[in-house]
Specification:
160 residues, Pnp Oxidase, Chain A, 3-stranded antiparallel beta sheet, 12 strands, 42% strand, binds flavin mononucleotide
Length: 160
Amino acid sequence: MSFDTKAFRHALGCFPTGVAVVTATADPEPMGITVNSFTSVSLDPPLVLWCLHKNSDRYRTFVEAPGYTISVLGTEHESVSSRLSKPGEHRLQGMELLATDLGPPALADSLAVFECAREAVHDGGDHAILVGRVLRFARREAGAPLVFYRGRYGALSAAG
Ligand SMILES: Cc1cc2nc3c(=O)[nH]c(=O)nc-3n(C[C@H](O)[C@H](O)[C@H](O)COP(=O)(O)O)c2cc1C
């Protein structure tokens, strides 16, 4: 049976998600990647996950990192999200950053920030599933989330 991968991707895109940037410490400077695969896993212990394509040129850095920081993006972060989703665009230069206790910087004005230690890396077909243990977190009281749906950015509209 043939499987239409492109149609499959389009069908998956009907599931609306938030958008996050994952940052890791790297030599000579920290790097980031835009993801929408971020999700919660467990409250106790506090675990989250995200998925990373094995072809990403950031693959080794993130899979081998002892930890990473996950910044949940707001609508004002759309250009940052676009930039960090371009192949080869990993640098955080020119972005407003916040120092974190564990190392990898967070994006300023994120809706929430999760500082994670590497808990596990699982095989997930053409992606790796990175499970992080949340050691510290913070959240903003208000703010509009950046949303990704059918391959486009959007925002939540108020419930009627
Ligand atoms: C909204 C959005 C969400 C994305 N989510 C993921 C993701 O969860 N995992 C992933 O590996 N790539 C994801 N990507 C693609 C990466 O951001 C990036 O484009 C890709 O890794 C190619 O660049 P690289 O080879 O330099 O890493 C996403 C892109 C966009 C625009």
